[in-house]
Amino acid sequence: MKKESNIYIAGHTGLVGSSILRNLKSKAYNNFVFTPFPEYDIRNQNLVKEFFEREKPEYVFLAAAKVGGIIANNTYRAEFIYDNIQIQNNIIHQSYVNGVKKLLFLGSSCIYPKNASQPLKEEYLLTSELEYTNEPYAIAKISGIKMCEAYNYQYGTNFISVMPTNLYGYNDNYDLEKSHVLPALIRKMHIGKCIENNDWESIRKDLNKNPIERIDGNASKEEILNILQKYGIQVANRKTEITLWGTGKPRREFLYVDDLADACVFLMENINFKDLIKDKEIIINTHINIGTGIDISIKELSETIKKIVEFKGEIIWDKTKPDGTYQKLLDVSKLKSLGWKYKIDFIEGLNNIYKEYSV
Q1: What does DSSP assign to residue 273?
Q2: Which residues are catalytic?
């Protein structure tokens, strides 16, 4: 890419897209086009077609997606498969039609079979069944990988796919119904600390910033406590308790989103699809895992966040709720061989985002 290349970041206001935009700007790239939601519903084929014909982007980062944690994935199964497939189909196809020089498609580590050997290698894709709770989202992302490979094979395009591990960082989603585990833990324990300190000003500020089911900081104390209890934040026997799903035993790998952005820009600048198919008899499993290669149990994660937030209450594990996949540790040897490794330490990253969240 040249500094003046016309670059389209789909999903530029989200966790990943906004980080990619910051990274590119820091490297002096200066020519961007966007499809801001809701003015552009990129599930709409005609809108995406008109956008590409008008703007003619040269490089595309496909970071737009409908995402969420285990509750959202299992509740909105239809939306997770429909929305993501529509977005991918429209942008990948129009990138081909309009001669985009290179596209980078972002998937997710949930594409791998639930009982695959650890760490997860790219070659394990489609070797056995998926985890049920996020199966629709995983199938959509697998479709995106295969679509990129098929277009490269048939049309000679230069589309590459990356599979990030669990992400966290600036501009994360703290909606307790739809967020992933790490931002949900930060928010729950922050509110729990505020309850312990009888700091209702901070609780109301938090709810005004991120209402829970339309309950904001203007609601009564009773209404606020009721909605917090629904999401596992309650006072019992004069102690504040946080109830979390499952046993806490599953392990997860976490990558600071600024590291992901750096990896994506590195790959866009340096790696082409042809570099990924050397010595391959068939075009398959050309995607690239992006992660740290290090994981932590959800219980350890919760205790770490509890310490950083300075929440003094009790963590209760609701073992009647599902754990999800036991482990999703990525094998990142392929990425390392291409010349990139993560830079931001996990504890440093957690401290950074809690400071940003609690302001």
Answers
A1: G
A2: 137
